[in-house]
Amino acid sequence: MSADVIEGCRLPVLRKNQEDEDEWSLAEILSVKESSGNKLFYVHYIDFNKRLDEWVPPNRLDMTTLQSPKKEAKSSPTNGLLGSGTVSPEQDVRRGMQSNIKSVTYPFKEHNFITPKKKSGSMCLASQASPTASKLSFPRATEVEEVSMKRTPKAAIDPKSNGHDDNHLSLTSNGGIHPIIPSKRGRKRKTACVVPEEDSQDSSDGTPPVPRTTGSMAPDCRNDDIVTRMKNVNCIELGRHRLKPWYFSPYPQELAALPILYLCEFCLKYLKSITCLQRHLTKCTLRNPPGNEIYRKGTLSFFEIDGRKNITYAQNLCLLAKCFLDHKTLYYDTDPFLFYVMTEYDPKGFHTVGYFSKEKESAEDYNVACILTLPPYQRRGYGKLLIEFSYELSKLESKAGTPEKPLSDLGLLSYRSYWSQTILEILLNLLNSLNYGERPHITIQEVSEMTSIKKEDIISTLQYLNLISYYKGQYVLTLSEDIVLGHERAIQKRHLRIDPCCLHFAPKDWGKRGRW
Ligand code: ACO
Ligand code: ZN
């Protein structure tokens, strides 16, 4: 019976849900293999994030409702999931995060407001609220109830300008094929990646890398999509951690197939066995990422690595990161990028927690290309710390920045959380700083200048939080009690913060350098 189950079929498959209960979910068969005489099926759960894809035995398949492969399924590689339809990060957040997301909600009960005025095309936020009404000087809930029924004029806040519109993006979305980006002045074209095709990197230092012809290095994604959409690496040992990759990463095939791939946790070189690793460790002198330590507070440090000066390290970091980044292109021309690696120190060295990469010059104002917290450190505030750091760099550059699109589901959650907290902090500080009778007044431009968050992201956050509405001919920001309380609770929990005094960074004008 399981012989009928071939690649492209769809059928219900038993999977563990968030509560660790068995649940039937529609899945697509991506591959079939035999292991010790037993058949195994690689399944992608429709509308769930690809990181939940897995090998399952036949007894987890419900063959009574088997759907044959759809013809058009083979010709739609846009999201790396043939015939599965595009799943946006937004949908992912709502439906696909069942592996570990409990809920992502914001309270919208409206009680209080500050009001904006429209002023020469930009939004000007100024309060109509009586300062005597409450602690935060807001009007009564009934007044706002009326406001919330008014429609926000479309022209004022165009959802297309919210920075999450993927249409204009030049990135691929299938997990590793390179975009065709026309060369721009002062901006290098991002080129195909190259990886040494070796058992390990033991002898690869200084050796010119050899282009691979499979995986994400292939110029045409359609032929090898079946490869890149399946996880290929079983397990990575990195220092004291064992990491289970979520997505395909173009490590050499013979290494990816091993039960465990060993990485030197400091230079990120990959090795085929523990013996090779031990031999490497006797020679490797690094105890921290290469590059300059530009931030240190307590045990937390940031190192800045130039992708042109530390090519092997930068490529190895990208390979590791790709295991957890699906929607991002893997750049192997690392020259145009800087890498900011965050570490935690102990007497054994500076252990990598996460990183983000950044183009030296970005025509699109991107201040982050890829961002990652290694799974053992996730959900402990490090992601927002990386994001905060990226904006501190932008502040020193006197520029507003935005993360490169598309964002992943988890990236979107983290950015939304960071943007919300940062903007609310400013609005509440403004209200708290008012003298008696004074009206708060702030523009989106001013919020952007204070935070280095791009205006589009500020507007999309205000919309997402449902703070913005149109009232009596004016734009109105409504800060509900729930929002304020929720924000205060979140801030109390946010222990990890960047201390700008500990950041030693002087921005460089890469445009003037001619060559990076
Ligand atoms: N489920 C539910 N919520 C989550 C999850 C999750 N698995 N992970 C993070 N969050 C939420 C947190 O609850 C938190 O929200 P809160 O402040 O409202 O509580 C927010 O996201 C940030 O949490 P952090 O602990 O600060 O972030 P973390 O260290 O987990 O890192 C990151 C976030 C970097 C996105 C991480 O999940 C990751 O590395 N993912 C894989 C790579 C990736 O997707 N990177 C982003 C791609 S987009 C780009 O590169 C521009
Ligand atoms: Zn090493």
Question: What this model shows, in words?
Answer:
This protein is of the alpha+beta class and 516 residues long. It has 11 helices and 20 strands. It has a 5-stranded antiparallel β-sheet, sandwiched between helices. Strands 1-2-3-4 form a 4-stranded antiparallel β-sheet, with no helix packed on it. A 4-stranded mixed β-sheet has the order 8-7-9-10. α7 crosses α8, α8 crosses α10 and α8 crosses α11. The longest helix is centred in the C-terminal third of the chain and has 24 residues. The radius of gyration is 25 Å and the shape is globular. It binds acetyl coenzyme *A (ACO) and zinc ion. The site of zinc ion has 7 residues, from loops.
List keywords for this structure.
516 residues, alpha+beta, globular, binds acetyl coenzyme *A, binds zinc ion
Question: How is this fold's topology laid out?
Answer:
Layout (H helix, E strand, L loop, with lengths): L9 E7 L5 E14 L2 E8 L8 E3 L32 H8 L19 E4 L2 E5 L14 H9 L71 H8 L7 E3 L2 E3 L9 H4 L4 E3 L6 E2 L2 H10 L8 E6 L2 E7 L4 H12 L14 E10 L2 E11 L6 E3 L2 E3 L8 H15 L5 E2 L5 H24 L8 E3 H8 L3 H10 L3 E4 L2 E4 L3 H13 L23
Bound molecules: acetyl coenzyme *A (ACO) and zinc ion (ZN).
Question: What's the short story on this structure?
Answer:
It contains 11 helices and 20 strands. With 516 residues, it is α+β, with helices and mostly antiparallel strands. 41% of the residues are buried.
